[in-house]
Specification:
six-stranded mixed sheet, Transcription Regulator spoIIAA, 15 strands, 17 helices, alpha/beta, four-stranded parallel sheet, 490 residues, 3 domains
């Protein structure tokens, strides 16, 4: 990455701050660097990141300054420091650097940001001279073990209230050793130096704290000027691949959501793992549309699409109906515990056409356990039928088994196999549907980290130090997988 000139970086930050609405400008004796290991555009579209920002800024005698991975950072070591947006301070100047991490491939960016701040990337290399590195976020619902090689402590699960409680300990403990001792006694906090590889149960916040919603809106976010608010949290379904399976589903009253939407909001995003399972989702979309608000929804379940809901999308200026097939064939969907039939998918396309939506966006996994070319061909045939009703965009992701699910431990199908399945879909759907696919190579890295432990986290650090290319990850993760138990990969 070319090093950004300080004056240009400061001008970029000033411009972005000037376009934000809702930012809380605050200084306090205890300042935390709240970091997101991706670009500003991505980080400011993260509801979890925004939720923690708002919680810290509401705490007396505590404030946070945000930091992000520089734009076009590349994958290797960064040149120049990573500075906070609010005060242009280096991350190394803060007593605590708290990362919100969404998924496995962001671990490399976390290492990059620490390196640019001259903070040792590995937990075992840090001492009282260095900031305390705290982590949390959606990744912790899946597998926080690799993160434990990089962070001093990890908030596992819902951090709405627990995150601030942890920061209070770090503020008052009087040193790293005392802080680690106290944090290790907190439910929902993983302290690798004390717990090894034994993970605590997921933390769950009080229902009274729901919903999470945006503190700041900005046109430079990936979702641009969209006020994000939870419609529900959790999912009662039992999909075999999903880390949110059979978690307690908590819906937010539609009236409460409407109360939270700020005056003048033009776009609202309703967020959740199972938004279409909200009992009043159609009514809520219509109510927002009546205010002249454009509504964005998380992926909807095809078996839950009603005439009422789809009819409400057009007045809410939605142009795309987004849903998921998950698996290419009925046989594999049944194996995954997905109650989705061809009839559900066809009905979704019909509803989209009837109500003037311009596109059906579908998500699909390939490389599933037991998958064959015949399964892929069945999926291509179904998408072809759908494309005759409405234009289709197909997002294809290689299957990566996650810890804590019934498919934990399933092997990756193979880079070559997954690439061939994607190519097979592209050929079958040429001229019929737009196909966008995740890289089979980087999905292999995601799979290795999703199944891995502390050594795989060390391997991320080593790979970034070597240049952060795929071959660097491949070598470091292969070594981590074959090293004797208890051995370091460094």
């Amino acid at each position: 990455m070319r090093e950004a000139r300080p004056d240009r970086y400061a001008a970029l930050v000033r411009r972005r701050l000037g376009r934000e609405i809702g930012r809380i400008d605050k200084q306090a004796p205890f300042a935390v660097a709240l970091a997101y290991p991706a670009s500003y555009a991505v980080g400011m579209s993260s509801l979890g990141f925004q939720r923690i920002y708002r919680a810290i800024q509401a705490e007396p005698d505590m404030a946070c300054e945000r930091a992000f991975l520089p734009d076009r950072a590349g994958s290797g070591s960064l040149r120049g420091p990573v500075l906070s947006y609010e005060r242009l301070r280096p991350l190394g100047d803060f007593p605590v650097v708290a990362f919100s991490v969404a998924y496995e491939l962001e671990l490399g960016a976390l290492v990059q940001m620490l390196g640019a701040a001259r903070i040792p990337g590995l937990r075992e290399q840090r001492d009282e001279r260095h900031p305390f590195v705290l982590a949390g976020g959606p990744l912790t619902f899946a597998n926080p073990l690799p993160l434990g090689a990089l962070a001093d402590a990890v908030v596992v699960g819902e951090a709405d209230a627990l995150g601030v409680q942890v920061l209070r300990v770090l503020r008052d403990a009087g040193g790293r050793r005392a802080a680690l001792h106290q944090l290790a006694a907190l439910a929902g906090v993983f302290v690798p130096a004390r717990h090894g590889s034994s993970l605590p149960e997921l933390a769950r916040c009080d229902d009274a704290l729901l919903p999470a919603f945006s503190a700041i809106s900005t046109p430079e976010a990936e979702l641009g000027d969209m006020f994000l608010v939870e419609a529900e949290r959790g999912c009662s379904r039992g999909c075999a691949y999903c880390v949110m399976r059979r978690s307690a589903m908590r819906t937010v009253a539609a009236e409460r959501i409407l109360e939270l939407v700020p005056p003048g909001a033009k776009r609202v995003g309703l967020v959740g793992a199972a938004v279409s399972d909200h009992p009043r989702i159609g009514w809520l979309v219509r109510a927002l549309a009546q205010r002249g608000i454009e509504v964005g929804l998380s992926s909807l379940r095809p078996d839950r699409l009603s005439e009422e809901l789809v009819a409400a999308l057009r007045p809410a200026r939605s142009r795309t109906l987004t849903t998921a097939l998950d698996a290419p064939s009925a046989r594999l969907r049944e194996r995954l515990g997905r109650d989705v039939s061809e009839e559900h998918a066809l009905r979704a396309a019909e509803l989209a056409r009837e109500h003037g939506l311009l596109r059906l966006k579908l998500y699909l996994m390939v490389g599933l356990p037991g998958e064959t070319d015949a399964d892929v061909d069945e999926g291509a045939a179904l998408v072809t039928r759908l494309s005759r009703l409405v234009p289709v965009s197909l997002g294809v992701a290689p299957f990566c088994a996650k810890r804590g699910t019934p498919l934990q431990g399933q092997p990756y199908a193979g880079i070559g196999t997954v690439g061939a399945r994607i190519a097979r879909l592209r050929r079958a759907l040429a001229g019929r549907a737009e196909v966008r696919a995740t890289s089979p190579r980087w999905a292999w890295v995601e799979h290795a980290l999703a199944q891995g432990g502390l050594r795989q986290g060390q391997a991320v650090w080593k790979a970034v130090c070597e240049g952060g290319r795929f071959r660097d990850y491949q070598a470091a993760l292969a070594h981590a997988a074959t090293a004797p138990a208890g051995a370091s990969v460094l």
